[in-house]
Amino acid sequence: MKAAVNEKLILQGLANNDKKAIETIYKENYNMVQALVVNNSGSADDAKDIFQETLIVLYEKVKSGTFELNCQIKTYVYSVSRRLWLKRLMHQNRFNLNPDSHEEVVSVEEDLEEHERRDSEFVLMEKAINNLGEPCKSLLEAFYMQKKNMQEIAASFGYTNPDNAKNQKYKCLMRLKKLFFTQYKTES
Amino acid sequence: MMDDIKIMDAVERYINGQMNPDERVYFEQLRKSSPDIDQLVVEHTFFLHQLNRFDETKKLKHQLDDIHIDLAEKGLIRSPRLKGRAKVVYLVNRYKKTAAIAASIAGITVLTMSALIWQVSPVKQQSTELKDLSREIRAIKNQNQQQNREINTIKKNIGAPPAINYTTGGSGFLIDAKGYLVTNAHVIDNATNIAVQHAGGKDYIAKAVYVDKARDLAILKIEDTSFKASGSLPYGIKKTSADIAEPVYTLGYPRNEIVYGEGYLAAKTGYNGDTLTCQIAIAANPGNSGGPILNRNGEVVGILSARQVSVEGAVFATQAKYIYQALSELQKDTSYKKVKLPAASSLKGEDRQQQVKKISEFVYMVKVS
Question: Is the pTM of this model over 0.95?
Answer without folding.
Answer: no
